[in-house]
Amino acid sequence: MLRSLVTASGIVLCLMPLNLFAGEGEERVEVQPVTVIGQPVGLGSGYALAQESQETQQAETLELPDVHVIGAVTATRTNRELDQISKAVSVLTQEHIESRNARSVQELLEEVPGVSLSRAGGLGGQIVMRGFNSNVPRLLMLVDGDRFRGRNTLEYNLFDPNQIERIEVIRGPSSTMYGPDAMVGVVNIITRRAKGEYSGPFRLVPRLRALDYTSVNHLRGTRAEVDVLGHGIDGLVGVSWRQADDYQSPLGQIQNSAFEQFQADLRLGYSPVTGHRIEITGKFADVESGRAGGIGGAPGVPLVRQREDPLRESFGKLAYQGRLEALGLEKVEASVYGRQLNSRLATDNRTQANRVIQSNNLVVGPTVIGGKVFGVKPWSQGTLTIGTDWFRESRKGALADSMTTNFNASGNVTSVTTSPLAQTAPDATQTDVGLFVHHDWDPSPKLTVSTGGRLDYIRTTSKTSPAIAPQLQAAYERGKESSELPLTGAIGLIYRPWDILHFTANVGKAFRAPSTIESFGSSRQGAGFNVPNPDLKSEEGVTYEVGTRLRLPIVHANVTAFRSDYTNFVIRQPITFQGLPSFQNQNAGGARMQGVEFDATWTITAGWEVLTNAAYLHGTDTGTGRPLSYVPPFNGLLGARYTLPEKGAYVEGVTKWSLRKDQIDSALERETAGYVVLNLYAGIDLWNVSSGLPDMRLRLALENILNQAFRQPTTVEDIRFPGGNENPLVEPGRAFSIALTSRF
């Protein structure tokens, strides 16, 4: 099915732009260079904005208009250098993304300090930032500056890393700028767009963007693109396909971890005059993946086999970026978008003796529409940003069927019971409209003061409907409408007594209304249920941060210490419901997360660079005094990179490490052992080797060189089941990967 889609979509998407905007007589657009912002933020040359590789980027971007990426510069929505931003920000550049030959976006992000991976299968899993799993929407994902809302457990699986230009990561609350779900941070995935002279004659530039292979799961992948350029138009049409078998761990093959991923995407821009850009973005993604274990606490094979078959995304957006000089606005952005996610989860449950339960869970949606409008203008020795954004999430109650087969002691079938397809949860909607204002004030070269405030209107509604089981019906009868008007704010300071030393401080208030799936979702969970809780209250949090930045000619270092206090904290608790082991989201009395994050780069000599980062976290349920579950222990990485810029070649060794996790809530998790993992990366620009390969790069990676067996301490499990059932999952073993990528 997917191969047919690849062929058909590739033909359609490649032919579609041929005559769409062709024509004579259009006004030529004056071309100006891009304003590229950024300074190194630690973690090596791959962790800076394009300015860090200026010579290479200059060749790629000088022909672009000065309006570059819609939704860029995540932290403030303005074009400010990273050292002018008080928040902790990391940037993964395209160069770094390519160098890792990553199997998923999650694997890229886990190299950011304070970010870990909770594995669910072969295609990544959830992100854990500052101790909190993205399975609960406290971490906001943006795509090109617009909210990705819907299936937060699976959203990261819908991206081919070869489609990504860079990833900007904010650690710390960002509710003032982006509203609910940004309690612990923001991840902004910025996708690639066409590059080249677009004011001249109309032309098509096809290319093989990427071709890659990974040994540990026999991953095969490819991406093809066509650039559409001319007459003020720049468009990129891409088709990606990746397929992988079950991956190998040092303890053997991890069953049900295979996946297949297909996507087709379009990013089409038109610049009628300098400083103004209209853009249309579209995407279709189809993923089939096994849940080898971890998600939702389910045990893995052989007790429970779950497979997402398929997960589909349809997305479209219309956006504008420009300037309104008559109003004194140096930057204006507006967008409207729509996204729909559909999935089917097939489950084969063998957790009960002499019984097999097979079920299908069809999730139609959610359907999300949203948008934003904001402007930026110089004001009072700084810049003022003011605007509004909104979204509406419509979630139709999931449909489920099941078949239960009972056996006697001899293994013979004694009875078969079927349940027809029926709705298992109520239809629900959540709407948020937010008004925000942010001011960056620079009274002197030594001081920056950032302040912001936001008012949201959040409304959640649900309908009563038949539940997955009669015993859950009472919970839905309490379904109700609710609305809130939360007010959030933040203040940040940067003090620079000397050019080489900066001090930062931030205080921010965050707010999060429970999602509709948290309050009203229900499903089978082993022999029991995920029990709905319509009475969930909204979470609130306050975070305090202080930091130091060292900026020597050969050393850049950042240290951030923080403490976050939360009230009405939502925790997924194991309960007994109707005599069956089940789960339910409940409000805890409070929670506290505190920690320290560190990253640094050291340029030893020309070509040689050492990089390191580390993060320590400690989380406590303040109501019970018990540790919060699945908080990563002290962990980090250490690496060294040698680069030959004139050859476009590099070699990089990276050691990832973690201490033993022994600060646990024994009712929810087990201890995990510490580990040290060695990785090696290398690459070369092939046009420096042969003139017949003017546009290609060769990338090699050897990961987990010692083939060490280890488990991520943040991977979710259900401790009521044996730990040997791939629960939590063992990480992949020794893996060799090779990739060819085009230059642009």
What does this entry look like structurally?
This protein has a single domain (2-742), classed as TonB-dependent receptor, beta-barrel domain (Maltoporin, Chain A, Beta Barrel). It is globular. It is mainly beta and 744 residues long.
Q: What proportion strand?
A: over 45%
Query: Any idea what the shape is?
Result: globular
* Helical coverage, percent range: under 10%
Q: How many individual β-strands? A: 39
> Roughly how many Å apart are the termini?
30 Å
**Unreliable sequence segments:** 1-72
Radius of gyration: 25 Å
Could you say which structural class the secondary elements and strand pairing correspond to?
Answer: mainly beta
List the helices and strands and how they pair.
Layout: H1 2-15, H2 54-61, E1 88-92, H3 94-99, H4 105-109, E2 115-119, E3 125-129, E4 132-133, E5 139-143, E6 146-148, E7 164-171, H5 175-178, E8 185-191, E9 203-214, E10 219-230, E11 233-244, E12 248-249, E13 252-253, E14 259-270, E15 277-291, E16 304-324, E17 329-349, E18 355-378, E19 382-395, E20 399-407, E21 413-423, E22 428-444, E23 447-462, H6 473-477, E24 482-484, E25 487-498, E26 501-512, H7 516-520, E27 523-525, E28 528-531, E29 539-551, E30 555-567, E31 570-577, E32 580-587, E33 590-605, E34 608-621, E35 635-644, E36 649-658, E37 675-685, E38 696-703, E39 735-742
Parallel strand pairs: 5-8, 28-32
Antiparallel strand pairs: 1-7, 2-3, 3-4, 5-6, 7-8, 9-10, 9-39, 10-11, 11-14, 12-13, 14-15, 15-16, 16-17, 17-18, 18-19, 18-20, 19-22, 20-21, 22-23, 23-24, 23-25, 25-26, 26-29, 27-28, 29-30, 30-33, 31-32, 33-34, 34-35, 35-36, 36-37, 37-38, 38-39
